Amino acid sequence: MMNTQISKEKWPLLKAELQKTWEDISSEELEMTHGSIKSIYGLVQQKCGLHEEEVKGVLTSLLKKYGPDKKKH
């Protein structure tokens, strides 16, 4: 999974969508990812026990809608 960061403006919208999609994940757990796609991906796999491709497909779809920002080094 790519290592990108969601912009602060888009993060609340994406977080709400993630919680609708995966109800087992709390707002606090999502906040601990700091909007990192890689961290969100790992959290979803761990908490929901989903296969890699399933998580990747849903995240890719959501990212098309909320467009991640490139992580600055």
Protein architecture, described:
- This is General stress protein CsbD.
- InterPro entries: YjbJ_sf.
- It is globular and about 30 Å long.
- The chain contains four helices and no strands.
- Helices cover 59% and strands 0% of the residues.
- The protein has a single domain, classed as Orthogonal Bundle (Protein Yjbj, Chain: A).
- The protein has helices spanning 11-21, 27-31, 37-48, 52-66.
- Helix 3 (37-48) packs across helix 4 (52-66).
- The chain is mainly alpha-helical and 73 residues long.
What CATH first level would be assigned?
A: Mainly Alpha
Class computed from helices, strands and strand pairing: mainly alpha
Q: In the residues, how many domains can be counted? A: 1
What does the radius of gyration come to?
11 Å
Q: How would you spell out the order of helices and strands?
A: HHHH
> Low-confidence segments, ≥5 residues, pLDDT <50?
none
At CATH level 2, the architecture is: Orthogonal Bundle
Number of helices: 4
Strand content: under 5%
Mean pLDDT: 86
Helix content: 55-70%
CATH topology value: Protein Yjbj, Chain: A
Query: Total strand count, please?
Result: 0
Assembly state: single chain
Separation of the first and last Cα atoms: 17 Å
Let me know the largest β-sheet: none
Shape: globular
Summarize this structure as a short list of keywords or feature phrases:
73 residues; Protein Yjbj, Chain: A; 4 helices; 59% helix; globular; YjbJ_sf
Strand and helix map with partners:
Layout: H1 11-21, H2 27-31, H3 37-48, H4 52-66
